[in-house]
Amino acid sequence: MREALTAWLSDQVGQPVVVRDLAPVSSVGNARDPWSFTATWPGHEERCVLMVQAVAGQLESELGPEFHTVDRLAGTGVPVPGALWLDEAGTALGRPCFVTRWVPGTADIRGLRNPDGDPALAAVARQLAAAAARLHAVDPAPFDHLATVGTADAARAQLDEWDDRFTRQRLEPHPELVYLLAWLRRRLPVARRISVVHGDLRFGNLLYEGDQLTGLLDWEMTHRGDPVEDLGWVYRSVWTAERVLPFDDFLAAYGAAGGHVPDPDHLRWYQVFSEVKHSVISLTGARSFATGATANLRHADRSATVPAFMTRALELVEGSC
Amino acid sequence: MLNPSVIDLLAGVADALAATVADELPSGPQRDQVRAAVAIIRRVARALPTLAPALQEDTQALAAGLRDLAALAGPLTGAAVARTEVADALAVADSLPDTPLPSLDQLMAANLVLRAELAGLAERPDLTPTVDAALRDQLAALASREAALRLSPWER
User: Fold this and answer.
1) Searching chain A, which residue's CA lies closest to the CA of residue B151?
2) What is residue A106's DSSP assignment?
3) Which of A50, A120, B89, B122 is the most exposed place for a label (fewest CB within 10 A)?
4) Is B149 at the interface with chain A, CB within 8 A?
């Protein structure tokens, strides 16, 4: 790995590069195999993160859109790691990969469960809301590596994509998911505007130091779409920051930073969609392990997460009837 | 041989792997793998005593729920599975809890047929509000029965 990485980076830089302190980084998501290292070449030293596409896992996604999105967000005020090099074909390391600058901070979310709250994480949550508003205000036109959608078909495009994945990935009928997909299809919302959507915006996918948000990570599900999608995802119960900053306050911070706060029905559609989407991600991980495509044990029993997501989604649906 | 029980055996294996392997490994993917294995073994050991009765109860509840829905919605379409398969699966459900019990494989096969039938109803576009509400109740109950096994890796 080190030799191949050294050769590739030397080719990219045009000078001999030395790679040191190369080490794998623990990852919960596992769509990418992350590594940290330091690269030095004459006059330069750069602490970096290498993201290698996982052989198989919980997510079907390409590296290119993630890298190009992060690259084009530079200078927009959205806190992203600096994009450095991309090998989309996987010729350098045998699998597609890209390198970004290292960003200081931790992704630890244990403080979110503190029943007494956490003022530092509350500040980070407000900054997350502001970062989301900035992201959603960015002109999506230059992001031409992402599929084009209109305001009328943004929700349908996402629903079609995840419905298709569900059909391909499930190992059994899952009538609850079939029902919810049909429910969503009968109530497609129209987006107020099209934005760059993160697609996995939440605590756990951001870095912070003390009370400062330092970077938004894990852009593998980014796309052009309805910004409300990120709001329907960001406070799901699995990673909610409700104890440190109530969701209403998060939405108020989003609005104060220029974001448009959606009406409850519009938001609820994306909250139900989010439960379905995460269920399909879990089923994808379960299939990857069941078929031997991955040996990562984090995926082995992921389908057991689905009942809780379905319960939440059906509660949301019940509340709308 | 009854002792150590399968449950005790699994719990012991998990404890031993945690103490002698996971705790000795440096942070990284190898330790993550062992920790995930330990957590899975513990959850399975915890759920094992209830798995077979839960599958029986679930199969019976699905059969009863489908009959209730058919009474409201008229004959179900059978779009997802053949009529004979559904009839056979209902027969398996009706045979519970008589002896001899079907094998676990037979029970799972019947259960999946009933779930497929429920999924066929769930995507019908012509559901009345009454049927829709009854169906939603059935699905919520199904999700609740599955969650009660506490097999989720995020179970606390």
Assistant:
1) A304
2) B
3) A120
4) yes
The pTM is what? Answer: 0.92
DSSP for A60-79, written as a single string: ---HHHHHHHHHHTTTTT--
Amino acid at B66: L
* Contact predicate A32/A219, CB 8 Å: no
Structure tokens at A149: 């959608």
Contact list in A for residue B115 (CB cut-off 8 A) is: 172-175
What's residue A301's pLDDT?
86
β-sheet bridge partners, residue A197: A223
> Which residues in chain A (224-263) have CB-CB distances under 8 A to chain B?
238
**Angular region, A174: left φ>0, alpha ψ -120 to 50, beta rest:** left
d(CA A288, CA A299) in angstroms, rounded, equals: 7
Q: Which of A204, A240, A198, A206 is nearest to A223 (CA)?
A: A198
Task: Give the best residue of A25, A55, A171, A176 to mutate against chain B (max B CB count within 10 A).
Answer: A176
Place of tokens 């990935």: A169
Contacts of B132 (CB under 8 A, 6+ apart): none
Nearest to A147 by CA among A210, A80, A85, A199: A199
Query: Tokens 């709308």 label which residue?
Result: A320
**Nearest Cα to A155, choosing from A270, A3, A55, A276?**
A270
| ipTM computed for the complex | 0.90
Q: Amino acid letter at A221?
A: M
A30: pLDDT strictly greater than 90 = no
Encode pLDDT of B95-128 as tens digits: 887 666 778 888 899 999 999 999 999 988 888 9
